[in-house]
Design goal:
Radius of gyration: 20 Å
Strand content: 15-25%
Order of helices and strands: EEEHEHEHEHEEEHHHHHHHEEH
CATH class of the largest domain: Alpha Beta
Strand order of the largest sheet: 1-2-9-6-5-3-4
Shape: globular
Bound molecules: nicotinamide-adenine-dinucleotide, glycine
CATH topology of the largest domain: Rossmann fold
Largest sheet: 7 strands, mixed
Oligomer: single chain
CATH architecture of the largest domain: 3-Layer(aba) Sandwich
Number of strands: 11
Length: 375
């Protein structure tokens, strides 16, 4: 690990009047100055969960008490299973009971689940109150806290009820990543790796060269990984906030990945694990389309595996595995008139959306499942 202090940095997300800074560094989240940009309304609410709350909520609350007269902490149950209306109602009950007004600032302290729910609650409460993202997982720091997608799940579909609603500030404190379970760190790396093939192959080479240091949680390495990821995400979202086109490239690996998550049952594989394997499958598909050589597929597979992520497509149905994947992928948000569309890459740092023939997709699924039998 390097001993030199991490210089705090800011990445800006440019969306006109909805623009905001992403602050990245150490010793950030519990410093009142970090939030100077937010103004000092009377009330603030810190939304967290039963895992992150005991670790960090009191420190955030103490810092915010220097800016807001009343800082309430609302603690929700931990887990994707609780990204629901019930959790939102619990939050609304608490803020209404505390007579929070429309200037109340909501602070999301936690991973993507807390961030997505708090953002959606902020979009709805009194038709919209300001909110701040304080992401504490790698996945949330490099992806979910940035860009304004907020949602809860519905029993019939993940993230189906939501809104585009931008935070006013994102605070990525790398110190919080030191308490993250190793499996969650690897899941976050999947979303970091994603930015290479879709936008910046130099970044992919940097990740390969620095993977061990990232897995050791070296603050300098983490700072660069978070910064470069946020820069790329800001560049994409700045051009296509509501995903009318370009923003779809952020879903590289996600079409296969969502099928894995849904087919195994949510929670069996982490989102980042499914995305890691999904990127390997999407690389195979890109090769089938003649867009990348097999050496690219091998390179990406080796990196995903070395990051601690699965690279073998799990069995979703022993009778007709590929058929089950296809059925699940037909309900993907990118599907159009029954045709499944995938983000494919060219090996040079560019990505695009393409429909693929079912027979080709079947071949990819079979090949990616076979690796398991050989291993
Ligand atoms: P998560 O929020 O469930 O967090 C993972 C686990 O780590 C949880 O148990 C959490 O309590 C714990 N945790 C969080 N920070 C910790 C810390 N510092 N130390 C110890 N434990 C900690 O999962 P996630 O991977 O952060 O986010 C996944 C969610 O993000 C999904 O619901 C997904 O749909 C959503 N997502 C949203 C977007 C978007 O653009 N809005 C993008 C990607 C993913
Ligand atoms: N994580 C995909 C997006 O923000 O668009």
């Amino acid at each position: 690990m390097s001993d030199s202090p991490v210089a705090n940095q800011t990445v800006s997300i440019s969306l006109g009047e909805r623009s905001y800074p992403i602050r990245i560094g150490t010793r950030l989240f519990d410093q009142a100055d970090t939030y100077a940009h937010i103004g000092s309304s009377a009330q603030a609410v810190v939304v967290t969960n039963t895992t992150v709350g005991p670790l960090y909520a009191a420190r955030l609350q103490a810092a915010l008490q220097l800016r807001h007269r009343q800082v309430q902490v609302v603690t929700l149950p931990d887990g994707e299973a609780f990204k629901t209306w019930e959790s939102l109602n619990h939050l609304f009950d608490a803020v209404l009971a505390a007579e929070c007004d429309r200037k109340t600032v909501f602070y999301a302290l936690g991973g993507g689940v807390v961030g997505d729910m708090t953002g959606f609650a902020a979009a709805c409460y009194m038709r919209g109150v300001p909110f701040v993202q304080v992401p504490t997982t790698l996945l949330a720091q490099v992806d979910s806290s940035v860009g304004g997608k907020t949602a809860i799940n519905h029993p019939l579909g993940k993230n189906m009820i939501g809104a585009f609603y931008q935070p006013q500030l994102v605070v990525c404190d790398l110190d919080t990543l030191q308490t993250l379970p190793p499996r969650e760190l690897s899941a976050g790396l999947a979303e970091v790796i994603k930015y290479g093939p879709i936008a910046d192959m130099t970044f992919l080479s940097w990740i390969e060269a620095n993977l061990d240091t990232l897995l050791e949680r070296d603050p300098q390495a983490l700072a660069y990984a978070v910064r470069r990821s946020c820069e790329i995400k800001a560049w994409v979202v700045g051009q296509d906030e509501r995903e009318t086109g370009l923003r779809a490239i952020l879903n590289f690996g996600h079409t296969f990945g969502h099928a894995i998550e849904a087919g195994l049952g949510y929670g069996e594989w982490l989102h980042g694990e499914a995305v890691g394997c999904g990127m390997v499958m999407a690389a195979h598909l890109s090769a089938e389309m003649g867009l990348v050589p097999s050496t690219f597929v091998e390179r990406l597979t080796a990196l995903v595996r070395a990051s601690g992520l699965p690279v073998t497509a799990p069995m979703l149905d022993p009778q007709d595995n590929a058929g089950r994947y296809l059925a699940l992928m037909r309900v993907d948000k990118k599907a159009e008139a029954g045709a499944i569309r995938f983000i494919v890459v060219d090996g040079l740092g560019n990505a695009c959306l393409r429909a693929a023939d079912d027979l080709v997709v079947r071949r990819v699924i079979e090949r990616c499942s076979l690796v398991q039998q050989k291993a």
